[in-house]
Amino acid sequence: MPRILSLDIIRGIAVMGIFFANVIGMAMIDAAYFHPPTYGFFSALDHIAWAVNYVLVDARFRALFSILFGASLLLITDRAEARDQPAWRAHFPRMAVLLLFGLVHYYWLWWGDILANYALIGMAAFFLRRLPVPAMLMGAVLALLVQHGPLMAGHAQQLPRYEAMRAPDATPADRATYDAMIARASESAASIAADKAAHENPLTHAREMTLPENRWQPFKSVTDYGFETLGLMLLGMAAFRSGLLTGSWPRHHYAVLGLVVTLPSLAIFAFGTFTIHASGYDRMAFYWWDYVWLPMLQPICAMGYIGLILWLFHGHEASATGLRIAAVGRMAFTNYLGATLIGTLLFSGFAGGLYGQLSRGQTWLIAFPVCALMLAWSQPWLARFRYGPLEWVWRSLAQGRWEANRRPPAPSAKPG
């Protein structure tokens, strides 16, 4: 079955986009990922980097990644059944190997791993693959509401109480309670120093931070945000079955989806960015936007991005630009883990030693050459090999045999 270039192009853009968010989490203390003033937030470049990520990147490209994972689930199982092979035999070994990769990624490289969660939720999503498209869409909406609805409602009820606790006319007891809550959410100089020391190398971080505090997080992620992942996978499955992700819709339909969905979404994100900036990056402003207004907007905006991408590339998937981006997407697994490896080498004390040394803006700029590297090496590699390096290992382990990867040399033309 030939490659679906539209899928590869979206996946390529997603894996590059997600690194603009991930690199911040790799380079500085965890709290700064969620509240910029906590660390490394000094210059205009730092503010610009945060604003661009907040408006265009944060959670959107992870949502794209999750949507495409659902589509890939169907693609793999459909191909297996077309070869008269049981779908479960193609799917579950892949998920088991992906889980192993995810655990290694989480425990040894970076706390922000998503692969283990994909593997665990992907095992459950397998049993929903035969649902009709309307049922998939309903299931996606329901799963996202189950994930975000109670949290959004709970925060909407609690936040006015917190606002009252810090108001000028608040009682001393309320003010003390609020100050204590903020202190618990803040990072002390001692905790920042301990965090930096733990990042001297990945082994130290795993021993001193990850294992004592978050040993079971890859599995706990199923209850923490598993319904969100499942909802996005179902959305991807529905988009694949409907032909949206395969590029088979008329081009003007993609334009409508992209413009009608994306522009209002980005306007809301821009308004949130302005509101947070105008508040002086107040924690309560972040809470309102991060936990009440935006969670359900992220997947909607991600679908708008899909519409925009496929509108721009419709009929031009095989162009020079399309093929280069598609190559990044075909090697998304290698590029995703490779970007983490680059981050580990740059920021860990045993190599680059840059952890906690750069501001947010300086860190953000690192994403540009890393994405350029993805674009530069993926296509030449695939001209010589069938799969990316880690895709080949993943595929071989899942099948229980080492597959040939190197492409045979092109036959030379005979003289005369």
UniProtKB/TrEMBL annotation:
<dbReference type="InterPro" id="IPR052529">
    <property type="entry name" value="Bact_Transport_Assoc"/>
</dbReference>
<feature type="transmembrane region" description="Helical">
    <location>
        <begin position="54"/>
        <end position="76"/>
    </location>
</feature>
<keyword id="KW-0472">Membrane</keyword>
<feature type="transmembrane region" description="Helical">
    <location>
        <begin position="12"/>
        <end position="34"/>
    </location>
</feature>
<dbReference type="InterPro" id="IPR007349">
    <property type="entry name" value="DUF418"/>
</dbReference>
<feature type="transmembrane region" description="Helical">
    <location>
        <begin position="361"/>
        <end position="377"/>
    </location>
</feature>
<keyword id="KW-0812">Transmembrane</keyword>
<protein>
    <submittedName>
        <fullName>DUF418 domain-containing protein</fullName>
    </submittedName>
</protein>
<feature type="transmembrane region" description="Helical">
    <location>
        <begin position="291"/>
        <end position="313"/>
    </location>
</feature>
<feature type="domain" description="DUF418">
    <location>
        <begin position="239"/>
        <end position="400"/>
    </location>
</feature>
<keyword id="KW-1133">Transmembrane helix</keyword>
<feature type="transmembrane region" description="Helical">
    <location>
        <begin position="135"/>
        <end position="153"/>
    </location>
</feature>
<dbReference type="Pfam" id="PF04235">
    <property type="entry name" value="DUF418"/>
</dbReference>
<feature type="transmembrane region" description="Helical">
    <location>
        <begin position="256"/>
        <end position="279"/>
    </location>
</feature>
<feature type="transmembrane region" description="Helical">
    <location>
        <begin position="333"/>
        <end position="355"/>
    </location>
</feature>
